[in-house]
Amino acid sequence: MIKNVFLFLLFLPFKFCFGQTELTNFPAGAGPKEVGYRIAHRFVAGKHMLHAGKWISYPETFYWTGAINYADLTDDQQLMQAMKDRFSKLTSVEQNLLPIKNHVDLNMFGSLPLRLYQLTKDKSYLDLGLPYADTQWEVPQNASQAEKDWAQKGYSWQTRLWIDDMYMITILQTQAFGATADPKYLDRAAKEMVLYLDDLQRSNGLFYHAPDVPFYWGRGNGWMAAGMTELLRMLPRDHRDRPRILKGYLKMMKSLKKYQSKSGLWNQLIDQPDCWEETSGSAMFAYAMISGVKQGWLNSKQYSPVARNAWLGLTKYVDDKGAVSNVCVGTNKKNDKQYYYDRPRHTGDYHGQAPYLWCVNALLEDGGK
């Protein structure tokens, strides 16, 4: 009898043994498929969120991609067709909204058509998306000397050492790799990530917004967490930069575990207990942890409860129409602590809608519900 029990335990599914069931069983109203449906379908009728009033913005790009991935994971063909139809309109009657290729916050748009190409194999998506990835490393004639200097060192000329960049650059280059299997795209993103890790990660595992802005801004740190997550998902185990990136990721996750509030969320300034809870950065942290547990980078017993509490806390900020509240608006760097306290909070802002879908999709992978 004892022997039989031992054999039963030995061959239990991996995720049961290591606590991953905490990321599959949720109370009514908090299931990722249900929450994701509301958020993803909200995008169908949503208005464009433009960058500088001219081009499709990075929050809209990432929300769009999140909805596409949700449609793919759930086989929601109606939603997928709506996403394709919206993109067809963008590339026809709305061509003026296609971003130009001269800034880190604009080039990242290419990650959207590159993802569509991976799912459809329609070459028109590849032809549109790949130049955004390539021009991130092709120095324009009017580049500044500082931009040229970065390029000469093998980095993107769009390097500026803002933590936001480590999702903008990483997601574009990893999607280019996903579309082409050309390792140069992974090498670019990994080299860039190591630079940012070395320059911006502090001894406590968190990141300054920029070298001259010594504050641990929530969503900025979220961009770093999500960027490392995307890279670790793609990098081969024998890639030369993987150990450095994994080390930075683990150091950050350990710190975030410490700073998580009782509600499951993290604050606008992570290390300031009197600062307000912010949802977009919290969702990015949750995404990084959910992925870490499922991919085996994180100890499941330690981090599954953290990720679960984060998700349950996040679901309380989603209304019945799929709008996420308590989202910090777009935020430039500023060496002023009060500036981060005073940032406006919006509901339905795409900065928050997108990372919620990252969490949803990570939870739904491998048969989640």
Write up what this structure looks like.
- This protein has 369 residues and is mainly alpha-helical.
- The chain has one domain (2-138, 145-367): Glycosyltransferase (Alpha/alpha barrel), CATH 1.50.10.10.
- The chain has helices spanning 2-10, 14-17, 32-42, 58-74, 77-90, 104-107, 111-120, 123-134, 145-152, 165-180, 183-200, 218-234, 242-259, 279-295, 300-315, 337-341, 350-364, and strands at residues 50-51, 55-56, 266-267, 277-278, 327-328, 345-346.
- The strands form 3 sheets. It has a two-stranded antiparallel ribbon. A two-stranded antiparallel sheet has the order 3-4. Strands 5-6 form a two-stranded antiparallel sheet.
- It is globular, with a radius of gyration of 20 Å.
- The active site is at residues 105, 164.
- Keywords: Hydrolase, Signal.
- Substrate binds at residues 105, 164.
What's the rounded overall pLDDT mean?
94
Sequence stretches where pLDDT stays below 50 over 5 or more residues: 1-18
The geometry reads as globular
Termini, distance in Å? 34 Å
Largest sheet: 2 strands, antiparallel
Total number of strands = 6
Instruction: Count every helix, treating DSSP H or I runs of 4 or more residues as helices.
Output: 17
Helix content: 55-70%
Helix and strand content put the structural class at mainly alpha
The number of domains is 1
Query: What is the CATH C-level name?
Result: Mainly Alpha
CATH architecture: Alpha/alpha barrel
What is the C-alpha radius of gyration, as a whole number of Å? Answer: 20 Å
